[in-house]
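Provenance

Sequences were taken from public entries as deposited. Structures were produced by running a predictor on each sequence independently, with no templates supplied. The record for Zn(2)-C6 fungal-type domain-containing protein from Mollisia scopiformis is shown for reference.
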Amino acid sequence: MQNSRASHFKSRAGCRTCKRRRIKCDEIKPCCIRCLSGNRICEGYGIVIDAPKRPTSKIIKIQKAKGHANSWSEIQPKVMTTLDVIPFLNHSESAAFDLFRSQTIREMSGLRSSNFWKKIALPACYSVPAILHASMALASAGRWSQASRKGYHPLGSDLMKLDTVHYYNKAIQHLKIHVAKHGDLSSLKISLIACILFIALELSTGRFGQALMHLNQGRKLLHTTSSSKLSAKCDSKVSTKTARLLSSFHSTEDEIVSVFADLDLQATYFGSERPQLTLGSHSSAEIHGPKSQFSLALPKHFSFMQEANQYLVIITNKCLQFVGQELDHDQHTRQNESSNFHRQYLYKTLKDWRKRYKEICSKAVVSDSSDTWKQYSSLMCLHHTWLSIVLPTSYAETEETDFDSYFREFATIVDLANSILSEDASKRLSLEFGLVAPLSWTVKNCRHPQIRRKALHLLTQAGREGLWEPRLMTQLGRELILLEEGIEKLEYLDLHAERSYGDEDLVPLERRISTVSVSLEIGEHPELCITFQRKAWSYGQCIGMETIIRRQPYESLLPEE
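Predicted structure for Zn(2)-C6 fungal-type domain-containing protein:
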């Protein structure tokens, strides 16, 4: 007897839970109604946001702003062209998600991380329940944090906090399924994306300890993966476990690596003495000379600005690894040949990067370049200048007066930071390694009165960058200047006057602070315990260390004026 049933299309796009149960899925995203009505956790539909293949052309000439824009759009995971409605969200959930996609995404998108937020995190919300609820938690946390800083009514602030905790818990509940799937690349991506959202959430509420906990978990995931895209290798020469990450900036994995690379650099000064990730490149150039953990072969030419930035991030990673190594005093002296070789190698790599960077800039018509392009370029020059001071002053014998030879470099850092902030003065949270660390470093080590005050003033205009809180760094910098200069009130002088580089107004050596550390004492009125250390001198000889402790209210927790 012939079958009279009409033929039909068999969908294979159902959620993972329905596929495993072998039942028909209604394919409602990000959670199917069949799973929800049966009180089951919908595992979602996976992430389908792979990027296209690498372009065939080796060099992209930057001659117009339009051509430059093309180089920025080489990462092209799926983009949400419309603000689709997720049907099963209630009113408050819809409002939280709408806040995430309309405001949080825009605020979190920086010069380098916009592709992650717009083309990876946002599309994943429509197919992965864990990412959806994590995004709603992040948006709700932003509202809660803003309400607390502005001194809103406690009842409204408490309701926002409850919403944040509710979405946070639901995200973790959905995420447990993916965490349990060891070796599954799609689940690994979901876990890492959620980890980044959790880090941003904790940072937006000032919970730095919890943010570091999530960061450490994310770094462990990067270490343990066996994916070809997120490859991990142990370096036998380094005592702590590190990962060599190949970041080509052409796929979902590479964007995730880029975000973690920035967070890892920030954590160098918060609980880590050096970066925990060892970044590599896709360059096939041959490394000349002895190979080490600091070796890096630059390409003969940079194809586009993003590639130049990629290599500068890798160089920054290697420089901070070198400077932050737990070496004996004798191993970091000027007489140590091995240490000197690595320092000179990294310094030469910095000079080679600068040469290739100038070549690509010469192909761009400055008058046609966009403001974003100019900010991108200024930020790279700022980081390069900062590293050009960090490396030569990393000897064990370095005295505080040795920084006086770099006033012009410090002035360059301040001028570049000023140009960036004049284009973007919004005080928002970003996960990128940007201005706060170099400006804070300038305030501490530059004793030129006008330059360090200008750097301190710019810190008050900067937004939060991951673990770097500019209000905290401003408070520390202000106390440092008052202590070193022996004054009771800080005056900013004329920040726009012509600079002179004489030494008549410099802080004497015996008053200069060597190290600054801070701890937060939690209580009814949170206090900062700031510990300063400087060398004690007698007849031109160092006879020990002097410790000075200051206690102050934690200004970052006070309501904004």
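The first strand starts at residue 244 and ends at 246.
Residues 154-179 form the longest helix (26 residues).
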